[in-house]
Amino acid sequence: MKVLHVEGGRNLYGGARQVLYLLEGLERRGIDNVLVCPAGSELAREGAAHAEVHAISMAGDLDFRLIGRLYRIIRRVRPDLVHLHSRIGADVMGGIAARLAGVPVVHSRRQDNPEMRWAVAVKYRLHDRVVAISEGIGHVLASEGMPASKLRCVRSAIDPAPFRRPGNRPWFLAEFGLPEDCIAIGVIAQLIERKGHRFLLEALPELVGRYPGLHVLLFGKGPMESSLIEIVRRRGLTDRVHFPGFRDDLPRILPCLDLVVHPALREGLGISLLQSAAAGVPIVASRVGGIPEAVRDGENGLLVPPGDAVALAAAIHRLLDDPELARGMGKRGQALIDREFSVEGMIEGNLAVYRELLAEKRIPLS
């Protein structure tokens, strides 16, 4: 079997990391991989060990020339199927290119943002199978008219091993300039509106009054950085809220956190939540999208209504006031990852979709 993968992400987190996991696992199973991704991307460099890489220009949702670029590659490499892993133009342009080339198409849907029913009917007609990376996303697609015959669910996954190493607290405190007695809360998310950082900042003055050693680290980059910094300044929290930016050493950082908070308004699943659970960190998060699959309320964290700063503060209170409860949730989170979010399970799930589709199309497996 030969599979051509298309991923528009440039950095190795989120969907691009899932693609790399999949390439590695499929290669071990004897599958020939071809990867199309942006020129100069981290995925192009790392993926070369497991796939024939075509690094090309990918300029986003309105890059209509991408159709021709992908069509020519598909015709040249002659895959059994095409797997479109991202939006950023790949979902539509890649679907058109594969249809023109007469090759079956699988598309992975990673976000739970709603779409108009007419758009679902038109866009997903390009795809033979749509793989939701959480049941939450699957429910959204089904509610918008996606036929059950086309929809499958294969959860995203992580390798927990890097996150199981003991935390080096002295290094952590020195790295971020934190006091020895601090309580460290982390948010690991792009600095964009739908991640809900402002609700934590709204809750923070009262929390800081109750926990004098509390510090919040907002890991990530994004267009809202300057506005969030201004909110922090206006609330007099500049000495309590830190902006470390994007970090590629989360396996070293996460075990040192006391709590991870994820107040998102929308979320397909949340890879950072899986990583936090793997590291044994309790979580407070919004009850939206696929988050309840990664954070089981009362098991490895607490869920609150989205956009509710009061409920968010109350949940944080509960865990900070009960360290034994928090430790127990951390341990149960590690067990949850091992049980339901393994990389091998994700690989086998996608491979099952490939085999089902090729059998339906009567394409013999090589």
List keywords for this structure.
six-stranded parallel β-sheet; Glyco_trans_4-like_N; elongated; glycosyltransferase activity; Glycosyltransferase; alpha/beta; 366 residues; Rossmann fold; 43% helix; transferase; 17% strand; seven-stranded parallel β-sheet; 2 domains
Structural class label: alpha/beta
CATH architecture tag of the largest domain: 3-Layer(aba) Sandwich
Q: What order do the helices and strands follow?
A: EHEHEHEHEHEHEHEHEHEHEHEHEHHH
Give the overall average pLDDT.
94
Number of separate structural domains: 2
Major sheet summary line: 7 strands, parallel
Which value, in Å, is the CA radius of gyration? 21 Å
CATH superfamily of the largest domain: Glycogen Phosphorylase B
Give me the side-by-side strand order of the main sheet: 3-2-1-4-5-6-7
Strand tally? 13
Question: What's the CATH class of the largest domain, please?
Answer: Alpha Beta
- For the terminal residues, how far apart are their CA atoms? 5 Å
Low-confidence stretches: none
Shape: elongated
Model description:
It is an enzyme of class 2 (transferase). Residues 14-160 form the Glycosyltransferase subfamily 4-like N-terminal domain. GO terms for molecular function: glycosyltransferase activity. Its EC number is 2.4.-.-. The chain is an alpha/beta fold. It folds into two domains: 2-157 and 342-360, 3-Layer(aba) Sandwich (Rossmann fold); 161-340, Glycogen Phosphorylase B (Rossmann fold, 3-Layer(aba) Sandwich). 43% of the residues lie in helices and 17% in strands. It is built from 15 helices and 13 strands. Strands 3-2-1-4-5-6-7 form a seven-stranded parallel β-sheet, with helices on both faces. The protein has a six-stranded parallel β-sheet with strand order 10-9-8-11-12-13, sandwiched between helices. Helix 1 (15-28) links the parallel strand 1 and strand 2 (32-38). Helix 3 (65-77) packs across helix 4 and helix 11 packs across helix 14 (323-340). The longest helix has 18 residues, at 323-340.
